[in-house]
Amino acid sequence: MRLLVTANHTPFIAGGADYHVNGLVDALRQHGHQAELLRLPFHYGEAEIERLMAFTEGLDLRRVNDVDIDRVISLQFPGYGVNHPDHVVWLMHQHRACYELYDPNNASPALAALKPKVEAYDRHHLAKASRRYANSPRVAERLREYNGLAAQPLYHPPHRPERFTCAADWGYIFYPSRLEPLKRQALLIEAAAHLTTPVKLLIAGDGSQRHTLEAMIETLGVEDRVRLLGRISEAEKLTLYAHALAVAFPPFDEDYGYVTLEAMLSAKPVISCTDSGGPTAFIEPGESGWITSPTPEALAAACDAAWQDRRRTAEMGQAARAVYAGLDIGWEAVIETLLSS
């Protein structure tokens, strides 16, 4: 089949979405299809977003440069507004600033004006899709809650899952992610002040919150408890997963969350929160991880519990690995689902 995949490109900002987008295109090609990626330049700004919405819904992708396109697969807003009679949407997320992250008390007039336009755009174009999938139960739940549309959750694996291994724990809790407000590294740092065991917290990644988090560590006096590792290599990340006691992942309302799956592949239990969204679909509380209230005290208690019974923590990690194996997450199942008639 000749397939076009639509997604966004935000200059100089990279993340897990790139693994999702590029992984899909690579998998389609490996399965013998002609697949091309159409990335739309996405700029955060209400006027720019409105212009991109208008441009996107004017794109007719049935035939491009005298080449017939058999199917379009769209992953992100506003790419699912393109026109094609066989258009499958595999939703990573919508424009969150107009949905679950929208705060009417603090929204700018421009954002308040954009919100109903985005909602109308989504209702119209997502309803037209031949089939709708979501990359997690949480994303499907939001679509149903805000737009009244159903989508089937469809999981995909992290980048090169075969690389993740488990080794003896070195007594630390690991949290790799961009240092951004929604990832809530600050919550974990605050938890460090409430720890009663010698467990350490290693936080990897870089981002807009780096200086804020450094100042917080100093203010709380937890320099002996928390280390900000900065940007690390893939090899370092794999080693840190392998030797972790457990993995912390307490973001706010995450869409999917590779950290959870990477921890499970490394046979490490995950510590997350009740409002963390996507990760909670994969954690069995008390069996393969912890789901706590989003408070420093509750997170600290879970970290202490992981340290206090390290044998039990290792068993929970093996249970997490077994949960992952039972989900049969792989690109072959994804391709079969997306290309089914």
UniProtKB/TrEMBL annotation:
Protein name, UniProt field: Glycosyltransferase family 4 protein
Gene3D superfamilies, per the entry: Glycogen Phosphorylase B
A Pfam family matched in the record: Glycos_transf_1
Domain of life: Bacteria
Domain Glycosyl transferase family, residue spans: 172-322
InterPro entries: Glyco_trans_1 (IPR001296)
